[in-house]
Amino acid sequence: MCGIVGYIGPREAGDLLVSGLRRLEYRGYDSAGVAVVNGALDVRKKEGKVDELAKLLDARPVSGTVGVGHTRWATHGPPNDVNAHPHEASDGSFAIIHNGIIENYGAIKKRLIEKGYTFESETDTEVLAHFIEDVQNEADLSFPEAVRQALTQVDGAYGIVGISRDDPDMLVVARNGSPLLLGIGDGEYFIGSDASPFIEYTRNVVYLSDGEMAVVRRDGYKVFQIDGAPVSKEVHALEWDLEEIEKGGYEHFMLKEIMEQPHSVADAMRGRVHPQEGQIRLGGLQKVLPQLVEAERIVICACGTSWHAGLAGEYLIEALARVPVEVEYASEFRYRNPVLTERDVVIVISQSGETADTLAAVRQAQGAGCLAVGLVNAVGSTIARETDAGVYLHAGPEIGVASTKAFTAQVAVLAQIALLLGAERGVLSQDEVRRHAEALAAIPAQIQTVLDGEEQIRRMARDYRYASNFLYLGRGANFPVALEGALKLKEISYIHAEGYPAAEMKHGPIALIDQFMPVVFIATRDATYEKVVSNIEEVAARGGTVIAITDEGNRDLDALAEYVVEVPKTIDALEPLLTVIPLQLLSYHIAVMRGADVDQPRNLAKSVTVE
Amino acid sequence: MCGIVGYIGPREAGDLLVSGLRRLEYRGYDSAGVAVVNGALDVRKKEGKVDELAKLLDARPVSGTVGVGHTRWATHGPPNDVNAHPHEASDGSFAIIHNGIIENYGAIKKRLIEKGYTFESETDTEVLAHFIEDVQNEADLSFPEAVRQALTQVDGAYGIVGISRDDPDMLVVARNGSPLLLGIGDGEYFIGSDASPFIEYTRNVVYLSDGEMAVVRRDGYKVFQIDGAPVSKEVHALEWDLEEIEKGGYEHFMLKEIMEQPHSVADAMRGRVHPQEGQIRLGGLQKVLPQLVEAERIVICACGTSWHAGLAGEYLIEALARVPVEVEYASEFRYRNPVLTERDVVIVISQSGETADTLAAVRQAQGAGCLAVGLVNAVGSTIARETDAGVYLHAGPEIGVASTKAFTAQVAVLAQIALLLGAERGVLSQDEVRRHAEALAAIPAQIQTVLDGEEQIRRMARDYRYASNFLYLGRGANFPVALEGALKLKEISYIHAEGYPAAEMKHGPIALIDQFMPVVFIATRDATYEKVVSNIEEVAARGGTVIAITDEGNRDLDALAEYVVEVPKTIDALEPLLTVIPLQLLSYHIAVMRGADVDQPRNLAKSVTVE
């Protein structure tokens, strides 16, 4: 992952780079660094969060109007000062920052060592720096040309920015697999892994595509392919504004985003769900609707929380539209040589639209002749651009590393797709579509009702904050919610929580049950309710602590569970939109009580742009 | 689950029932009891394993030549003396033992309490006993007729045996969803959840089907449906013998079964895999082969370890035969109203052939007009009888609750099916079939090589025995092995271990990584090896402990991993047959060192015959 920022223009670069890195910390925060040119190449880098770097810069400031900055998420070598970026040439003539993984770094390093190069760090990035240096020296090349020729010999994924002492009015940028964009200001240019570092200065951006490089000078920029061919790029205008990516009075982005869900889910349905007419209208799918309706099979590819949304989508689409759905881990899909035909449709889901494995799944699907549909939050992101059609989530920027409002927006959009297909395929009558559309339209207010019960969840968090393990169990539409509830707790509280389909418990996980194992059951009164109650009895019989999420007015579980959390009643397939809310809050409050860093949990990064 | 035994004949019943219960302990072991008639109805029951019951019977013996015995796996109410079976009528005129779940017990109990009945236990079984009593008293019925009429009003799954003080030369037996069979001796009859309690007395058995009852008297037995219609049953001859279900010098059944795998995998291929001819011959599939070859999609349904084998099968069948495969939890499949067409083939996998959810999946598949194929170990089991065709595993009896040799036999059979389909569908040339068949034929000796390395695994177990959490990561064919390795550790050591596809780690689980989290990587040099090595670097960079399973001669990981376990090289898709072996041994040795009861882990039972 890693966050990248760059600046060239009339301002002092140092402060601008640091404030940009703070916005990018969601992408990695184990060490950070900057390089600024002002006659010499000044490099400062430091283990820890951006704050540590800022302290260092207070003590030893830099000066200059061109510079690069980096916040790291370690891939090769532990987080420390030496492994932090930027990495320099042996003679200090240039420095680079890098996001991604150089896969053949081992072989290159070996050759360089044989040639006498020495290495201070364990990173693949230092290898790349010395490799560029070697290519430059062998043929007496300019810095941009050396970068270009070196990259033609590199395997892997990268976003790179280089800065040169000897050619100081220039930044060299290259992208292959890791997101990078240029911000086009008035007499100044910005570079970022996303637009957040420079959004208050300009909203005009150029998205680099894979295999593209740019040379950015004070008076303009040129984009070309790594093979040297020039490329002409369009300038896009950004939609989000700065206020939207700030905390708005909440202690953490995650809590703000949990609390925003009545609005974000409504936004994901606005202009799309029409209960009166019994209609769903998804403009982004209009042109491919015939192909989607005729699909013999839908394959959903995603990672992490989006994969859980995909499982909820499988349930929705199979139940409402009767199309067979298979849900794949994007990372497995791409290497498994999946069996695809042109009658299959592939739906990919990614909040950032930059998830490396999911993007690879898009390309694999298109290579097999399949229609690729994207469910993406970040407008203009790579996946949004490369898919054949798609539906934006319109959830607004999600900054908290643990995804919350993106999940509910994803499920809401999948429900709309399921309804649209159900109607178009003649599976659902107009009355049924209307009934479901009404239920969907009621969801935002119902989410608010669940959020209003936060105090109960806070009490629960106090009771369970010392647990070191958790199980989450659900069935049917709520099985993905069990997985998602467990993932939330893992991500931000570092408690080992695991989700399972409730009936699988007896095939192994029940061995873990004792008085130290709280078990969260999602037990709404749907088709499998009686079976889930039997599973609750089995846990209770073995001394396990039961926490139940159920629907309003159900008093049956009071005797079996320590806590019963009620959510409003809705149609079975839409339940995940409500049952996930208390689990998001539970993980949030437990993490806060354990003193964990909710918005920047250890080891994680928001947008997984390496494989 | 629960184990059931019954006897009527010339012998003393007490000792015979206890020795039968010891054989059935794999089905449950939290409490046990017997009832014997000899003028009065003598009931003895005790919390704990069968040994505790045996001590009680030494102190207070029973006498009589007709009796029933039960070893419990708790569903309703914790394990204790009162909740143990048998449960009696209020006046002690009869007793019943029961395996399964009465789903409408709450409503029935409420009615009975209104009529003045009192309850000592929290079980659904006591409710059934009083309900039978009530039906009997209301209409002055015989005991068998009262059982029959009561059962027509009961929802749920059960295997029941009743014994009456007033009509003592008789046992009443009923089955709906839980396995029961009669052993037909010479002037004596046996009843069992399986044949193990009476295999030394007779090998002639009658399998009861769902909805059937039997009245067994000293001079013969009658089988009829619960609606009263008579049924004529065939007598089958059993294949396994007693020696096969004993430990053969090993300390635990599980270790014996791990060590047997060179033989059991060979048995699963014997007469089926013909490398010279480049042919796979599976007699059990012959009659349905055309339908199987034409399948548009294969859906695999299973639970627990068998579900993991199914995932390995997905990889094998998609890679070698290019048929799309979907793997479903049987418990989810049956309630999800899955989208099935007559061109889909459903393969179910179950060691015991009695797994309740898997059996329900068979019926659902057949109801949708699909061909249902069974991969089953226990010959004559319900799933073997109800599927349209199938392949027996021939792994021999598996007694250890944690499945080991059944898994490798299942994967070996799935590999054969993949090869057969690949050949028949023209995806594989005869040469490719030959090459794969040779690789398969080499597996048993390669497993032996891995087993010969047991000493290294024992050292690893010493190093990691105090860990309280574990992660297991793999990709492609080895992702199911990661899940299976984690499940083994959960089941018998009660360590919270979790499996993940390696690339998903970055989407959440990596937050759990610190110096207390050992991570087992299956990192063989296949198509995704480089990516897995990147994941290993990421774990190492965060202080996690790495244990690597790789292929022979790979020294790349020595610097990154605390232990590197090598397995012989085979074809990618067959790797699970080798990589799973060290993980089985690791879980076994850790569990032994932690003092856990390997063959009878807490809370579990071998054959999950309730939902």
UniProtKB/TrEMBL annotation, chains A, B:
It is found in: Cytoplasm. Keywords: Aminotransferase, Cytoplasm, Glutamine amidotransferase, Repeat, Transferase. Its main location: cytoplasm. SUPFAM superfamilies: N-terminal nucleophile aminohydrolases (Ntn hydrolases) (SSF56235), SIS domain (SSF53697). The keyword Transmembrane helix does not apply. Residues 288-427, 460-601 form the SIS domain. It catalyses: D-fructose 6-phosphate + L-glutamine = D-glucosamine 6-phosphate + L-glutamate. Residues 2-219 form the Glutamine amidotransferase type-2 domain. Pfam families: GATase_6, SIS. InterPro entries: GATase_2_dom, GFAT, GFAT_N, GlmS/AgaS_SIS, GlmS/FrlB_SIS, Ntn_hydrolases_N, SIS_dom, SIS_dom_sf. The active site is at 2 (nucleophile), 606 (for fru-6p isomerization activity). GO terms for molecular function: glutamine-fructose-6-phosphate transaminase (isomerizing) activity. Its EC number is 2.6.1.16. Catalyzes the first step in hexosamine metabolism, converting fructose-6P into glucosamine-6P using glutamine as a nitrogen source. Homodimer. HAMAP family: GlmS. This is Glutamine--fructose-6-phosphate aminotransferase [isomerizing]. The lineage of its organism: Bacteria, Pseudomonadati, Rhodothermota, Rhodothermia, Rhodothermales. The gene is glmS.
